Amino acid sequence: MNTTTLNALAEPRRLQMIELLRDGPLTVGEIADRLGLRQPQASKHLKILSESGLVEVRAEANRRIYRLRPEPLMEIDNWLESFRGMWEERFDRLSDYLKHLKKSGDSPNSKEEFE
Amino acid sequence: MNTTTLNALAEPRRLQMIELLRDGPLTVGEIADRLGLRQPQASKHLKILSESGLVEVRAEANRRIYRLRPEPLMEIDNWLESFRGMWEERFDRLSDYLKHLKKSGDSPNSKEEFE
DNA sequence: CGGGAATATTCCAGTCAAGGAATATTATTG
DNA sequence: CAATAATATTCCTTGACTGGAATATTCCCG
User: Fold this and answer.
1) What are phi and psi of A21, to 5 degrees?
2) How far apart, in whole angstroms, are the C-alpha atoms of residue A53 and residue A70?
3) CA dist., res. A104 & res. A102, Å (int)
4) Chain C: nucleotides under 7 Å from a protein CB?
5) Which tens digits make up the pLDDT trace of B32-45?
6) pLDDT band at B69, cuts 50/70/90?
7) Fewest CB atoms within 10 A around its CB: which of A63, A94, B66, B86?
């Protein structure tokens, strides 16, 4: 997995921008308005998003229209694939745990040992 | 989405740790060894992973065994869900694009306008 | 060409995160 | 209890990131 994508997303404002752009392309000014940012900050964050490939720009007259690019998010999704097996394991363990409770009548202890 | 999870993953060493732990729990020393880190750095990074919930610790005698927790990764996966529609859109646009090429015989231009 | 709107860039100050080295802590063993 | 192994914590320094304010750039329009 690529760290630059995660790094770009790890900043609250930028994450908000990505979520905003999920519903369609937006202008710098619109983004700044909706997030309560000053324009320069918006531009700076958008630059980082752009450099990370999470966003692409189209110039239209005076304006710059930013649009979400799916590829980096797809890459994360793909990376998560290798962990999905774990979740099922966890589900198995949960059902084992429930069975255990039923059998022994112990009070549930959240600090119980794993493994 | 939660920024702290992304922040924890955005550091290369920590991301490597998560990938290491995908194959099972490990000791601090083992993690440090496999990643070529000094022990204090390993402990510091593991602390951050632990505080973000990506990892849990079990004390066994002298050792601390770190184990991956799936929940934060599941949360990311869940967050991505809201973007999955976009990918299909993109596929549609790609097939439109291919049709367009076939019809007009233009040379492919990677800088073509979106929308 | 001049003015104004939309956006980008620069400079600065404050804060935060990471590595290095040293030290503290905890548990084992004899 | 002393010695040692495994791990955590602290202190320090340095580099990176963020926001603010000011300024530069680009483009449209009359």
Assistant:
1) -75, -10
2) 9
3) 6
4) 4-10, 17-23, 26-28
5) 999 999 999 999 99
6) very high
7) A94
Domain count within chain B = 1
Cβ–Cβ of A15/B9 closer than 8 Å?
no
Residue B110 lies in a domain: no
CB B46 within 8 A of CB B66: yes
> Residue B50: inside a domain, yes or no?
yes
- B59-65 contacts at long range (C-beta below 8 A, 24 or more positions apart): B63/B27, B63/B28, B63/B29, B64/B27, B64/B28, B65/B25, B65/B26, B65/B27
B82 part of a folded domain: yes
pLDDT over 70, % of chain B: 77
Which residue in chain A has the smallest CA separation from B25? A115
Q: Are A35 and B91 in contact (CB under 8 A)?
A: no
Taking C1' of D26 and every protein CA, the nearest residue is A62
Does A94 reach chain B within 8 Å, measured CB to CB? no
Amino acid B31: pLDDT: 97
